Amino acid sequence: MSVKVRFAPSPTGMLHVGNARTALITWLFCRSQDGHFLLRIDDTDRERSKAEYEEAIEDSLTWLGLNWDEKANQKDRLARYDEQIEFLKESGRLYACYETPEELSLKRKSQLSRGKPPIYDRAALELTPEEIAKYEAEGRSPHWRFKLNHAPIEWNDHIRGEVKFNGGDLSDPVVLREDGSPLYHLCSVIDDIDFGITHVIRGEDHVSNTATHVQMFEALGATPPEFAHNALISDAEGGKLSKRLGSMSIRDLRDDEGLEPMAISSLLARLGTSDPIEAFTSLEPLIESFDLSKFSRASAKFDPAEIFRLNAKILHDTDYEDIRQRLQAIGRADIDRPSWEAISPNIERLSDVEDWWKVAKGPVEPIIEEPEYIAEALAQLPPTPWTEDTWGEWTAKLKETTGRKGKALFMPLRQALTGMAHGPEMDKLLLLIGPEKVQNRLSSKKAA
Q: Does the pLDDT at position 446 exceed 60?
């Protein structure tokens, strides 16, 4: 069977971590099967759907490296939905309901107070022509529900295993609003049929929706696709995601947090699986190792610290030629290969190069707490030209003349030269600072 999948975001907001994970898992499954990926924009909500959100979603997917083979917009398919809706009305699977939201809310509260599940009671099916005429005379417009058969609903889920529902335990879902516009459920099913979708991958919060969708497929004379419902993401303690990272959009993670796309993908692709989380620099290894059976039913824990660890590792492993154009784009064309190799092991985000470049090129405020030792260090500076061996030669001479070793030998030099107690390896950083600035920083507490 040829695999065809879809990712179906609503352009009512930015692409966030949870949806991005679903997009990534769907894409990796598709590419691992040499399948066809459809980007379907679910934009039937005319008031909330915005062109700028659609553009932002596409931009985020492209930045993550998730391409698509085909694109469709639901707003262009309204005539097709109307056609199928009329078929379902004629076949008795859709029925009109006249309750107001307030009346439905009272019904639900009454059922809950009596210890009963809040399932729609199908009162609309008992309405007489006179009662319907009365409601319409009052100006009420009906919403429409899909009539579920009270029969078993079963499927073998690629992640959750065997899933069973009974139609009698579910509320007949509303599929048409009072203004006649269709809701997500029916449009999605019609699209999946028309576009030949073979596998639907989505969050476990859609499991009960899927149960109703199975009967919609059957009512339209189609065989349901295969399903996989991945567990939702929680924070590191198993609670709801905080605003810090998990609730931020992919665009925010890129622009505000300065994250690399592969740091996000490396984490999201392995989150909740039996595979170890590693830092990958391309999607290819993730495609090759992908298998839906590796995903657990347990909630996947999203630890922000993990994504920054991966981000740092990816940057540390990035070759200068692969980063050169991006350095130019942030105004650091003056960072050459030796400079990158000196700085990159100490950055967590690409923007951090600016901080270390300032440490190297100044101005900085030297920390000189042992002036006599620093004066001796100045006197023992090796002659130019300097190489990566210069730091070792210099500190070896100082060890010989002062008897110092370890932290007592190295730390005063680092603080005097950088104004910091940590940073890049000094053998490389010494060359970036250069002889003139080294002499200035050793001989004065003033910025140099």
A: no
Q: Which tens digit of pLDDT belongs to each residue from 170-185?
A: 999 999 999 989 998 9
Asked whether the beta carbons of 154 and 162 are under 8 A apart, the reply is yes
Task: Please check whether residue 10 is in contact with residue 49, taking contact to mean a CB–CB distance below 8 angstroms.
Answer: yes
Q: What residues contact 80, with CB distance under 8 A and at least 6 apart?
A: 190, 194
Q: Report how far residue 384's alpha carbon sits from residue 398's, in angstroms, rounded to the nearest whole number.
A: 17
Q: Which residue has the higher pLDDT, 235 or 86?
A: 86
pTM of the model: 0.89
Query: Is 189 exposed, middle or buried (CB count within 10 Å of its CB: 0-12, 13-18, 19+)?
Result: buried
227/249 Cα distance (integer angstroms): 26
Q: Per-domain residue ranges for the chain?
A: 320-361, 371-443
Q: What is the DSSP letter of 231?
A: P
- H-type alpha helices, 233-276: 250-255, 261-270
Could you tell me the two tokens for 19? 């949806």
For residue 183, what are the CA distances in angstroms to 43, 82, 203? 10, 12, 19
The architecture CATH gives domain 371-443: Orthogonal Bundle (1.10)
The neighbour count for residue 283, using CB atoms within 10 Å, is 21
Lowest mean pLDDT among 125-134, 229-238, 263-272: 229-238
The pLDDT of 231-259, averaged and rounded, is 78
Distance CA 140, CA 236 (A): 48
